[in-house]
Amino acid sequence: MPVDNSDPVTRPLGAQISHMLKARGVDVIFGIPGVHNQEMYRGIEEAGITHVLARHEQGAGFMADGYARASGKPGVAYVITGPGLCNIMTPMGQAYSDSVPLLVISSCLDDTAGQHGQLHQMKDQRAAAATVCDWSEEARTPQAAYTLIDRALTEFEVDRRRPKHIQVPISVLQAAAPAAGPRSALAAPDIISVEAALRPILTARRPLFIFGGGAANVSHIARDLMAALGAASFTSYAGRGIADPDDPLHFGAALARPDSAAILAQSDMVVAVGTELAEVDIWRDALGHKGRFIRIDKDAGALARGPQGLHLRCDAGAALRKLLEMAQGHTPDTDWAAADVVRARARWRADVDAERPGILPLCDALRDAVPEDTMIYSDMTQFAYVAKEVWDMERPGHWHHPYGFGTLGYATPAAIGGAIARKGAPTLAIIGDYGFHYTMQELGVAVELGLSLPIILWDNGKLGEIEDSMIRAQIAPNAVIARNPDFCKLAEAFGARAVKPQSIAAFQDAVRAAFEADGPTLIYVTPALTV
To answer: Is the pTM of this model over 0.70?
Structure first.
């Protein structure tokens, strides 16, 4: 007997899940349908949700990640049992490292203990997903599915935003289920009194703040606070744009520079806000400070690690607002000198240029060519490594990079997700030749959707960063060169525009034109352009 899809009581659970997500504010779902998860597709159009068909589940995951970073809303992906889930595990790992609210909902087999040789069978699919996300659970009843979805959405709002995975057995997705009930209201959190803990900051002679991506939503407060205190600042790569780039006491995103430790040692009060101070933030064993240390973060796990000091578990915005209130009437009188900041930044810029010659002028040219409010997605490529050290952002949350997990192939699909989230706003991708190989097929999605997306492909003909690392380790470079296709012809085969500028001025013109095009443009750049 056919299912009556118009009756909410008799809809299959797969359809009810889409209706529930729509009621919770989800407008876009990324994924690929298959025989195991097709019930999840029964309700997508009826619920009024836009589905973006990726070419690979890895692309779907990166698109959902890029959408979440651009919109501030959870990115949702539907995938099939087994290989579909395995393919999206790389994006899940990236989202875990970078605190991105990614919700992956997959189908799963009803029985893996008593049956063998089934289509898409894995030994323990749920446990496999759990290795790369915050939690992975199986919903064996409709109510369990609804509860887990609401749990994920709630945790995205109140805790550190990390990916979740929910799997539902195929037979449960197919069976009729009642509609999900309304979501419970969230109570406002208690205001934590941090005044006593923060008061010593007001009397520090060399206060220095380090802002990470966890403080991106309170940049206006952070900027006012730096001025009120006369404090110096660094940001992590993910925190760029939080501090005012014109602040004369802002050292930039230079924590990974070895001699930044000497500057931190000059501070009598270091305050780290919304940053893990992880290996990929500082690239050394110790931060380098010698004075007092205060850490502000809402992630208990992050507070349990890192430098000893006073660790406050609270919202960054609440803490900074309280400190700014305490600083009213305070006369900034510290021992930092703007001239020292200028000298340090000039030295670090020269070091960056010497380490990866020729790229810095191209980064400067690109910065001058992009429109205001451009959102940039970069990949693991030398172009991005230079840019994230020398490119000061005017606003936070506008440069996204696979910082922690460090996966290749992120930029193109993530930028597609970002462009979908910010329809009509400028979005740009920066990717290397090897990374482009990983997800080049998603260029078809950008063409299909008519996205005005410049994709800058930096082709040095090799895994340049790995070759340099091997040479430093006195290893004869091997397995670092792969035969590349004609990338411009490849892009055109997908239906995209492609240009190969022969000068930096032509490069800038190509970028400007790409933002006005009625589809994606591959802008092919090689080191010859920088000579």
So the answer is: yes
